[in-house]
Amino acid sequence: MTVVDAVLSRVPEPLRKLLLKHRELLKFAIVGGTTFVIDNGIWYLLKLSILEEKPVTAKVIAIIVATIVSYVLNREWSFRTRGGRERHHEAALFFLFSGIGVALNSLPLYISRYWLNLEEPHVTRLVQEVADFASGSIIGMLLAMFFRFWAFRRWVFPDDLGGKRRGSAQAADDPAEELGHS
Questions:
Q1: 97: nearest Cα among 36, 153, 164
Q2: What are 14-24's pLDDT values in tens digits?
Q3: Is 0.70 topped by the overall pTM?
Q4: How far is 151 from 148, CA to CA, in rounded Å?
Q5: Does the pLDDT value for residue 149 go beyond 50?
């Protein structure tokens, strides 16, 4: 029994059906939560140490590392029954759309810091850090997340190519099997 199966067995039936119906979105959100932790951990490590004067650069580096992790997790788990393109084509599309996501994610932080001047000495350190978190980790990440989910489903891992990766029709008919990793 996978971890997902164990969790689902404890979820009430109506909610379980909803989770199974939107399993790709749920798995995408779990991957997103994981990469959120990776992104913010690296960002704060860099911006509070060696890249203190360059918070946007630190954010871009953190996003790139999180994006690489995201590709592996999304390909092998979230969208594992989709796709079917040659790996290099799929990866190129993934990183192209992720690059657009990096720009969408960084834009609110850039606006906050350099257009609105929400940085020291114009504001206190606390205001600067709250503005950085709100613009870089909340607003920017939400913009990028919605864009990437749409783009990945539409172009990177399209459902019409999914038959090449699904294995058997029986596995595709078992919703619990698709939610788990096996």
A1: 153
A2: 887 777 777 77
A3: no
A4: 5
A5: yes
